[in-house]
Amino acid sequence: MIGLRRGLALAGALRRGTAADGLPYKLTLIVTRRCPTRCSFCSIWKTPSPDEMTLQEWDKVLFSASRAVWVNLSGGEVFQRPDIGDLTEILARRLRHLYLVDFPTTGYFPERTLDACERLVRGGVRKVLVTVSLDGPPDVHDRLRGRDGAFERAVEAMRALRAAKLPRVSAYFGMTLFPDNHGVADETVAAARAAVPGLTERDFHFNIGMESGHYYKNLGIDATPPLAALKVLERYRRRGLDPVSRLERAYQNRVPRYLDTGRSPVPCAALRASVFVDPQGVVYPCSIFDRPLGSLREHGYDLRQVLGGAGARQARKDVVAERCPGCWTPCEAYQSLFAHWTRSSPERPPVPSGSPDRPAEVPAATETRTSTARAGTRTATRAPAEEARREQSR
C-alpha cells in the first residue's frame, strides 16, 4: 500500500510538473561541502563549510516540503557527515510520498553508504540510486581526484554495494567527461570491469562537465569537453527500454545541441519542478544559476515562504526567458525532460549565442558556466558538431 501511494504521488507530480502542494517535487539538498578528494575540476573541497544545517533544521525544512517525491542528496561527499544515516531516516519519515532518492559518492565511506541505503529502503522509499564517481582508469582517476588510491576506494564501494544486493537499490559508476578525461572512457570501463566482476556497460553513466559559481566553485576552468566527447556518448548510449535508460538516452541525445548553443534543449523546469538548497539553508533556483533566493533560517525553515517571495518569482521568469547561464547537467536536465514529455513543452531549436533570440551577454551576477573560451567559439563549432553527428551515424 505504501508503494502504491508513493507511485501514484510520483505519477501525479510528473503529470502536474509540481508536487501535490504546488511546491517543486524534486529537492536537491547539499548537506555538506566537506570532501575527502581534491579534484582539479571542482573546488567545493576548498570552500569552508561552517555552520551546516543540523538534523533538527533539516527536519523542519522537510516538514515544509512534505509532498516532495524525489530527493537528490549531495555534497561535497554526502557521507562525510557522520549523521547522514539519521538524515536519511528523517527524509523517509517526513516525505511520506518520497519515491526516489539518488546521491553521488566518492566511495570513501562504504559502510555509511550501505547503512543509508538500508534505512531508506526500510523507510519505504521505492528506489535508491547510488552513483559512484569514476573519472578514469586508476592513474587518471587518482590524478584528477588529487588522492592516491582514490580509484581503489571507488571500486571497493561498488563491490560492497553489489555484494549487499539490497532490494530497490541500484548502483552505477558515473563518469563526467571533461577536457582532461574524455579520451580515456574505454580504458576506464575496462579497468572498472576488471576490478568489479560482473559489471557490464549498462553499469556506467556518462555526462558532460559544467561550471558553477555557487556550487562547484569552478568558474573559468572550461569544464565542458570538446566535441570528440560526443563519440563517447554514442558508444556507450544506453539501449534499454527501462525508465533509467530512456531518461539517460534522452539526455545524451541532446548533448550535441547544448554544445552548439549553450542552451538547454528543452525548457528548463527549475523553480517549478525542482529547487536547490545549500548546506547553510540558502535556496537557489538550481545547481548552476547563482541567484540566492533567501535563507531558510530567516524564513522559519519554510520553503514555501522563500519560493513565494518576489525574488523567487523573478528568478523563475528569468529561467523561462533564458536570462540564466544555461546548462545541460543531469541534475537539472532530467526533470526538464519529464516536463517536456508530460506537458508537451516545445523542443527548442538551436539558436546560437548573439542571435536576436538570445543575448550574447549574460548578466555578471548570473554568469556561472560559460568560459571565455567557449563563448568565443560556440558559434564557430556548430558546423563541426554537425559533422561529428554525421560521423557517429555512419
Structure description:
- By secondary structure, this protein is of the alpha/beta class.
- 40% of the residues lie in helices and 12% in strands.
- It has helices at 2-16, 55-64, 84-94, 110-122, 138-145, 150-164, 185-195, 229-235, 243-253, 255-261, 303-307, 310-320, 330-343, 372-377, 382-393; strands at 26-30, 70-74, 100-105, 127-133, 169-177, 204-208, 274-277, 282-284, 294-295.
- The chain is globular.
- The relative contact order is 0.12.
Count up the helices. Answer: 15
Query: Can you list the strand order of the major beta sheet?
Result: 6-5-4-3-2-1-7-8-9
Query: How many strands appear in the DSSP assignment?
Result: 9
Helix and strand composition category:
alpha/beta
| Helix fraction by DSSP (H/I, runs of at least 4) | 25-40%
Mean pLDDT: 87
Q: SSE order in H/E notation?
A: HEHEHEHEHHEHEHHHEEEHHHHH
Main sheet characteristics: 9 strands, mixed
How many whole angstroms does the radius of gyration measure? 20 Å
Principal-axis shape: globular
Which residues sit in consecutive blocks of at least 5 with pLDDT less than 50? 349-394
Q: How large a portion of the residues is in β-strands, by DSSP E?
A: 5-15%
Question: Distance between the terminal alpha carbons, to the nearest Å?
Answer: 49 Å
